[in-house]
Amino acid sequence: MKSPQDIVNEMMNSDAFSNWLGIRILEIEPGFCKLTITVRPEMLNGHQTAHGGISYSVSDSALAFASNSRGQKAVSIETSIAHIAPVFAGDELLVICREINCGKTIGRYESIVYNQNQKIIAKFNGTVFRHPELW
């Protein structure tokens, strides 16, 4: 079976959007992912804060990496996010995704998104369907 790092590397190699986000994987373990991005000017909305889709998208990528890291293919079936504080150009976001439950076909995960000052800027929850297919 492939290692969690091998799985995430394979995913990143074909994930144009996560690469556009500039995701840098800091740590990957079974059911766990820690990653970071730098918010760029083209990620801002009309209020000159990061579009809500940025913290959502980076959290969704963390969910994908954490949930697939056990070697069984997984896809999200439900996600939600609470935006807590604004994000600005130049901010360094850190996302930590942890597995809450890993069943035979369903997994639950939560992510917390921090800025460079360790301030929580978003909380994300996700449910995945775990396919029988392996990586």
Q: What is the end-to-end distance? A: 8 Å
Low-confidence segments: none
Strand composition percent = 35-45%
The assigned structural class equals alpha+beta
- Tally of helical segments: 3
Radius of gyration: 14 Å
Total count of strands: 6
Give the helices and strands as they follow along the chain. Answer: HHEEHEEEE
Amount of helix: 10-25%
**Chain-averaged pLDDT:** 98
In one word, what is the shape?
globular
Q: How would you write the strand order of the largest sheet?
A: 1-2-4-5-6-3
Largest beta-sheet details: 6 strands, antiparallel
Keywords:
6 strands, single chain, 3 helices, alpha+beta, 6-stranded antiparallel sheet, 135 residues
